[in-house]
Design brief:
Elements: E1 12-17, H1 22-34, E2 39-43, H2 52-62, E3 67-70, H3 84-97, E4 101-105, H4 106-115, E5 125-132, H5 139-150, E6 156-162, H6 169-178, E7 183-188, H7 193-197, H8 199-202, E8 206-208, H9 222-228, E9 239-245, H10 253-264, E10 268-274, H11 278-284, E11 290-295, E12 309-310, H12 312-317, E13 322-325, E14 332-335, H13 338-352, E15 370-374, H14 378-389, E16 393-397, H15 401-410, E17 414-416, E18 430-434, H16 451-454, E19 457-462, H17 471-478, E20 482-484, H18 486-502, H19 508-518
Parallel strand pairs: 1-2, 1-8, 2-3, 3-4, 4-5, 5-6, 6-7, 9-10, 9-11, 12-14, 15-16, 15-18, 16-17, 18-19, 19-20
Antiparallel strand pairs: 11-13, 13-14
Helix pairs in contact: 2-3, 10-19, 13-14, 13-18
Bound molecules: 1,3,4-trihydroxy-5-OXO-cyclohexanecarboxylic acid.
Length: 519
């Protein structure tokens, strides 16, 4: 495994401050420093009262960190709508007072740079910025734009876009790796998130993190940059792993995998990837930098066709939740770590309660039991194959009856119409397993079966792990069932993934501690 040193890159973590008063702004600068910012971006246009001569002196002289001074006009998405001359005079004054950086919009940059000879050597560096509404422009168009921005004489360039698809971000990565001048480039929003997180890998000079009181829509928090993603540890050699899913923001994968990578000194980063189109995704992210993936809803079955090889267990199940890019030939190999994870989680919970089926000779406490599965998607398939392998008899419910029938056939079980689930009378000691997203954050109050039938199950498992104790589990516990949280499955499938991603042995106890502390 590669080693991870402290502070491997020179990327600065910047906190944007949109405070409304000068007093607050000064407080916020100190707060940002306390929380670990390297630099702050001050949005003067957010101040409700601002007298440049007086206030800039206060701000600049009391700064505890290097500052980037921005005075964004309405015509470029900011709040300032006074006259241009006063706005630009204020920026020049900030420079003269000692601000480390001032930000000029591309539209005005040529003239101001020329008039004030700003491109020349000075303690204050000029950032020329541009906001492009969509990254629909081609790689070439974006390169031309960057060349134009560079020709202003800027010391640094800032290009912000809104991404409509994760594949557009590859253009940002291309720019970051090829730009001649220091570049800040990223896309905002959920689909743009990885352009921000992976900036340090591709040579971005700055990554933005927002803080309480100054939360900015579309930006990750400073705490997540530091604690979850460890952006200071990311460098050009860092291997990228990601969760391909839609939705993806509920996943706790990043707060489990990233600290674990760091704990064992593995140079990897794990990021959420909101993917809309699998085919486009795999055709764009071909490089060895993207080394492996977790696969979440709704892609566990569909992703199989993009794997060059599929492990026999995953093939039999018909669902892949882990992909590793083989470093020798770049081929994508699909695995399933959900199956063992979910079944051993249920078995261990039963064993812990001393429930070994009354017959010590039986290989599993699930042997001979009825296993009622709700949801015949990827996770459901893994559960039912696991249950079958332990000698349980599987009964499948899914809103798509044909899908339920296909799965039932594959595990020699039975499928019943979804409408029958509410009043379904299970056999004695039956296990209920929810493998649908019902009850998942933010729709926490829903349960897949009726409360009345819950008391008929002796064990209830929920593959949903956000929240840790779903409404289904709370109700089942109240009804007297043994409950097994999806968190246990999540932990175990992640252990399996870590082993496949790194080729090493996962530090299971460490991972369990994270899960206990943070989930
Ligand atoms: O089902 C899950 C959960 C998951 O999708 C997540 O939410 O992090 C990650 C997958 O690897 C796993 O199989």
């Amino acid at each position: 495994m590669g080693s991870v040193g402290l502070l491997k890159n020179t990327t600065m973590v910047c906190v944007p401050l949109m405070s409304h008063s000068v007093e607050q702004l000064v407080c916020d600068m100190f707060q940002a420093k306390t929380e670990g910012a390297d630099i702050v971006e001050l949005r003067l246009d957010c101040l409700t009262e601002f007298v440049p001569e007086k206030d800039l002196r206060t701000i600049v002289s009391s700064r505890p960190l290097p500052i980037i001074v921005v005075y964004r006009p309405k015509w470029d998405g900011g709040f300032y709508d006074g006259d241009e001359k006063s706005r630009l005079d204020a920026l020049i004054l900030a420079k003269e007072l000692g601000a480390e950086y001032i930000d000029l919009e591309l539209q005005v940059a040529f003239d101001i740079m020329e008039e004030h000879k700003l491109g020349q050597q000075s303690n204050c560096k000029i950032i020329v910025s541009c906001f492009v509404d969509r990254v629909t422009s081609s790689k070439e168009d974006l390169s031309d734009l960057v060349t134009r921005m560079q020709s202003t004489g800027a010391h640094m360039i800032k290009l912000v876009t809104t991404a409509t698809d994760i594949t557009e971000l590859s253009r940002i990565f291309h720019l970051l790796s090829h730009c001649q001048v220091p570049l800040i480039a990223y896309s905002t929003g959920e689909r743009g998130l990885i352009s921000q997180l992976l900036g340090p890998k591709f040579g971005g000079v700055l990554v933005y993190g927002s803080v309480e009181g100054n939360l900015v829509a579309g930006l990750p928090t400073l705490a997540s940059l530091k604690e979850a993603y460890g952006v200071k540890n990311i460098d050009a050699d860092t291997k990228v792993y990601g969760l391909i899913s839609k939705p993806v923001s509920h996943s706790k994968g990043p707060i489990l995998h990233n600290p674990t990578f760091r704990h064992v000194g593995y140079n990897g980063v794990y990021v959420p990837m909101l993917v809309d189109d699998l085919k486009q995704f795999f055709s764009v992210y071909e490089s060895p930098d993207f080394a492996g993936y977790s696969v979440g809803i709704p892609y566990k079955e569909a992703v199989m066709e993009f794997c060059d090889e599929v492990h026999p267990l995953a093939k039999a199940i018909g669902a892949v939740n882990t992909i590793v890019k083989r470093h020798t030939d770049g081929k994508l190999i699909g695995y399933n770590t959900d199956c063992e994870a979910s079944i051993t989680a249920i078995e261990d919970a039963l064993k812990a309660r001393g429930l070994v089926n009354g017959q010590a000779s039986l290989p599993s406490p699930l042997t001979g039991k009825q296993f009622v599965l709700v949801g015949a998607g990827g996770a459901g398939r893994a559960l039912s194959f696991g249950a079958k392998s332990r000698g349980a008899r599987v009964t499948v419910f899914d809103i798509d009856y044909d899908r339920a029938k296909t799965l039932a056939l594959a595990v020699s079980g039975e499928a019943l119409p979804f409408e029958e689930l509410t009043n379904f009378q299970p056999e004695k000691d039956a296990v209920l397993a929810n493998a649908t997203p019902i009850g998942m954050h933010p729709n926490k109050n829903r349960i897949p079966v009726s409360e009345e039938t819950l008391r008929d199950y002796s064990v209830v498992f929920d593959a949903v792990y956000t929240p840790r104790k779903t409404t289904l589990l709370t109700d089942a516990e109240a009804a007297g069932a043994i409950i097994v949280s999806g968190v246990e499955m999540f932990l175990r499938q992640a252990v399996g993934q870590f082993n496949l991603f790194t080729g090493g042995k996962a530090p299971e106890e460490f991972m369990r501690e994270i899960v206990l502390a943070k989930f």
